């Protein structure tokens, strides 16, 4: 069987240091130099980067049972989320998915407009009093506040959760990139900042769960829906630890992804696209900057993709970031243009995959789109935003596709025009 082409890398670590130095640049060079299926080596791990819709469909959907999530990254994420939807444990995943999916049906979020407004409006009032904002920070603060309301109907200080989540995500990415991770030997070897952040999140979330269990008149939110599903038939199916894992997973998976995507949307749409349909602005932002820029699977049994051998035990990497800029599917792929989405909604066959595919497709897809379109509409109804000149706008890929540092934007009231 043929071996896919790929960069040689160093004897010991393969391409690990190039990947760490510039992940997106390295992967883009790999497909440019070797084609749409590239064999890579990161230390002891062999991985195939696949960059065509039909290959992606094969791995994530048609042959999904041959590709699981028992990967290094899932192991490291589990230190924060336990055994829930992002976990490698198939049994735990399936139980959680059955439970969580119904709590994320579009009908559950029909009336969240006023919930979002109650948080967006004070932000816009504050903007009215200022000339400049850091859009990245603003969106982080806003989306965590929205997430806390939608998940828990709670008034806890969003800043407290935000800071802890940032520490958890940064530490997890550091451990994913590191060749060796001492905390996989014993959880006691985690860094103190990580342990402290987990402790803070635990305290908040366990508190919320226990209070809610005792509550007679439960508000209409995700936590209540999860509890109702557990308690159906009078039998509680998930204990507090499992519920904690489910809610922390949702916070982790939903917060930074949506916040970063929104800031990318404002950064680019403010260049003359403010009047485009908010849903199209957001769709184009997550084409150019898909929050989950890389998806990993482990190969269970030997396979063949594109005529190349994919050995069992190796990894497969899919990068929505690369696929969304594939010249065969996207004319002028690096240009921001929401009108690409005016007609039919592109799908995987058109090279579009921001929310994944198959059994692990994003549960928060509808919610993320709804929040984002609503926020974009409210902001542009009152303000024009302009990027302050002289800033270097770059990507900083971690667990999500972040910005390199703050991004300052100038605020202009529409009323004053
Ligand atoms: C712009 C925003 C978002 C993007 C781009 C995004 C993207 C994705 C992608 C690509 C996956 C699939 C990962 C894989 O196959 O390994 C995924 C999974 C997931 N997403 Fe999202 N997501 C977003 C927002 C949200 C929100 C708001 C929530 C919930 C509050 C959420 C919860 C999840 C969960 C729990 C999973 C794991 C599903 C599973 O493995 O069964 N996401 N997301």
Automatic annotation (TrEMBL):
<feature type="binding site" description="axial binding residue">
    <location>
        <position position="362"/>
    </location>
    <ligand>
        <name>heme</name>
    </ligand>
</feature>
<dbReference type="Pfam" id="PF00067">
    <property type="entry name" value="p450"/>
</dbReference>
<comment type="similarity">
    <text>Belongs to the cytochrome P450 family.</text>
</comment>
<dbReference type="InterPro" id="IPR017972">
    <property type="entry name" value="Cyt_P450_CS"/>
</dbReference>
<dbReference type="GO" id="GO:0004497">
    <property type="term" value="F:monooxygenase activity"/>
</dbReference>
<keyword id="KW-0408">Iron</keyword>
<keyword id="KW-0560">Oxidoreductase</keyword>
<keyword id="KW-0503">Monooxygenase</keyword>
<dbReference type="InterPro" id="IPR001128">
    <property type="entry name" value="Cyt_P450"/>
</dbReference>
<keyword id="KW-0349">Heme</keyword>
<keyword id="KW-0479">Metal-binding</keyword>
<dbReference type="InterPro" id="IPR002401">
    <property type="entry name" value="Cyt_P450_E_grp-I"/>
</dbReference>
<dbReference type="InterPro" id="IPR050196">
    <property type="entry name" value="Cytochrome_P450_Monoox"/>
</dbReference>
<protein>
    <recommendedName>
        <fullName>Cytochrome P450</fullName>
    </recommendedName>
</protein>
<dbReference type="GO" id="GO:0005506">
    <property type="term" value="F:iron ion binding"/>
</dbReference>
<dbReference type="GO" id="GO:0016705">
    <property type="term" value="F:oxidoreductase activity, acting on paired donors, with incorporation or reduction of molecular oxygen"/>
</dbReference>
<dbReference type="InterPro" id="IPR036396">
    <property type="entry name" value="Cyt_P450_sf"/>
</dbReference>
<dbReference type="GO" id="GO:0020037">
    <property type="term" value="F:heme binding"/>
</dbReference>
